[in-house]
Amino acid sequence: MIVNMSTIATKKEIDHVIERIKECGYQAHVIEGTERTVIGAVGNGGRRSEIEALRAAPGVQEVIQITHPFKLVSLQLRQRRTVVDVRGVKIGGGDLVVIAGPCSVESGEQLRETALAVKAAGAQMLRGGAYKPRTSPYDFQGLGVEALRLLREAGDETGLPIVTEVMSEADVEIVAEYADMLQVGARNMQNFSLLRKLAKFARPILLKRGPSATIKEWLLAAEYLLAGGNANVVLCERGIKTFETATRNTLDLSAIALAKELSHLPVLADPSHGTGLRSLVPPMSKAAAAAGADGLMIEVHPCPERALSDGPQSLDLPGFAALMRELGQQPLKEVRAA
Ligand code: PEP
Ligand code: MN
Which residue among 238, 281, 309 is best mutated to probe the pocket of ligand 1, counting the most ligand atoms within 8 A of its Cβ? Predict the structure, then answer.
């Protein structure tokens, strides 16, 4: 339930409502807007009818029901969009934010060359996998801590904030030591103990949609992070499993638009995993931007044919620069070398 206070409600009236919400067995989430205060009564098993009765309390404008099972994530509760700040890069702030880099960090040279090129082409953040969730145990699993160190180096040299996946609860501390943003991969979207742990970390989270997850399940996974205390969450649509086999996944463009209707959280699109095919990355990037995406995550490799993972969907350096021009992103005139 949401209690909308009137624009002239006093502090005493607001405090009274908060007190009553707690007495009725709910948590009170207070959102102070520029015009009014909105208080969410969140939780299960509280005395709902007594919250409804708060309509009659002084200073209350209206009491409305949150119709979705995700409460803190819902746009209904917040009524204002969240902007997630990753070391100065504002995701959800109105500009299309492009995160680019290799699927996997393979070596210092590969990462450095990619980082300098994507920065020069106008990317605002650097990605790269250190711990790789591979379908086969025989495929390259990532360089682990060595990759984290290389990412930090490339991030520091270029000034690009870095995002990388944390695959297991055991790795959260070490990944958080190096990365500016922690990625929850598609396969881990419903790893609830990982989500609970990440909720306690003061790092922005990039939450990918599971390949077989409904939009409701995706937003409920985000709810775990917000309910646990981390409000800096960015959603990322990365394609879902459908009957289609011509593409690796089906990039669900409607999910981008709908997630933005339902939630105040920023939404990114990953057309690389979303299609699995390099040639489809530019058109799907533009389509995602048209659908309202706040940004894109794009895999880039200096030599895709030699990539240790996801070469077929990776853009090469000139291909990425061309896409950035088509997207109207400003390439930097010069790149600062260390
Ligand atoms: C990735 O971005 O490196 C990745 C593995 O993506 P996903 O979890 O969406 O498959
Ligand atoms: Mn990949």
Answer: 238
Q: What is the per-residue pLDDT across 44-65, written as a single tens digit (0 to 9) for each?
A: 888 889 999 999 999 999 999 8
Q: Which two tokens stand for residue 207?
A: 């939450």
For the Cβ of 239 lying below 6 angstroms from any atom of ligand 1, the answer is no
Long-range contacts of 314-319 (CB under 8 A, 24+ apart): 314/102, 314/103, 314/272, 314/278, 315/272, 315/278, 315/281, 317/113, 317/114, 317/117, 317/118, 317/121, 319/278
- Report the topology of domain 84-337: TIM Barrel (3.20.20)
DSSP-derived pairing of the beta strands 89-91 and 97-101: unpaired
Q: Ligand 1: does its nearest atom lie under 6 Å from the Cβ of 133?
A: yes
Question: What is the residue extent of each domain of the chain?
Answer: 2-64, 84-337
* The pLDDT of residue 202: 87
pLDDT 10s digits, 218-237 = 999 999 999 999 999 999 99
| CATH match of 2-64 with 3.30.70.1140 | yes
pTM over 0.85: yes
Q: Measure the CA–CA gap between 312 and 272, rounded to whole angstroms.
A: 9
User: What is the CA(55)–ligand 2 centre distance, in A?
Assistant: 51
Is residue 332 pLDDT above 60, yes or no? no
Compute, in angstroms, the gap from residue 265 CA to the centroid of ligand 2. 24
| CA distance linking residue 27 with residue 16, whole number of Å | 14
Q: How far apart are CA 234 and CA 265, in angstroms?
A: 6
Instruction: Please tell me the distance between residue 103's alpha carbon and the centre of ligand 1 in angstroms.
Output: 8
